[in-house]
Amino acid sequence: MRDMDREYNIINWLFYVVFVGLGIALSTKADFGLSMIAAPPYILHLWLRDSFSWFTQGTSEYVWEAFLLLVMCLIVRRFRPAYLLSFVTAVISGFVIDGWLWVFGGNAPYADMFTRIAAFAGGTVITALGVACCFRTTLPLQVYELVVKEVADRFQLPIPKTKQGFDIVMFVISVALALLLTGGFNGVGIGTVVITVVNSTIIMLWGKLVDKVEGAEANNHSKPE
Question: Cα(69)–Cα(141) distance, rounded to whole angstroms?
């Protein structure tokens, strides 16, 4: 791997972990409903936090991802030791989420409506950028993106379509968990619906921009002085 390729590989992974964590934290503060990806662990956190004070939103994130990893292995009918590295990434991401929430003063929603709308818009766009970066690194992904890539590979499906299908399934799971565990729509809402509809498109647009920027930088570095 060339030095430039290795550099982008690491940068994309770092952007992925930091931006996705930031996006989830902002969406939590907005309280219009988290993305269909982030909602299930958030709902589990709401359900268990009174009984287990250590069960933070970030902790719930990697516990949920461990469950998804097991389900994915059953679907694709294989297990690779490298999958465990995705769980390590999930743990790191969980700490990043808790870190951002600490910066923002906890996961209690903002009171001002304008601030909530801004947080939701920013969280949606930033999360999509992080996911776009994740598909451009060979370093271990979180389990969510690993599921998309492995299922697409196993059944020879295009990643955008697989991602869209995965989002819809996660949306259904989010609603079911909210009703079952909280007796309402805690963690899901109009924001969840909006993200489910637009998420794949925003990720695709960010991906094109990331490719363009990295391609331009690579060309500049390849030019003789």
Answer: 12
Of 88, 66, 71, give the one whose Cα is nearest residue 17. Answer: 88
Per-residue exposure over 36-62, b if at least 16 CB sit within 10 Å of its own CB, e if not: bbbbbbbbbbbbbbeeeeebbbbbbbb
Closest to 25 (Cα-Cα) out of 128, 114, 96, 112:
96
Cα distance between residue 104 and residue 169, in whole Å: 30
The two structure tokens encoding residue 38: 């982030």
Q: What is the pLDDT of residues 144-193, one digit of tens each?
A: 888 998 999 999 999 888 888 898 899 899 999 999 999 999 999 999 88
Structural contact between residues 140 and 22, judged by C-beta atoms closer than 8 angstroms: no
Under a CB-based contact definition with an 8 Å cutoff, are residues 73 and 79 in contact? Answer: yes
For CA atoms 55, 60, 62, 65, the dihedral sign is positive
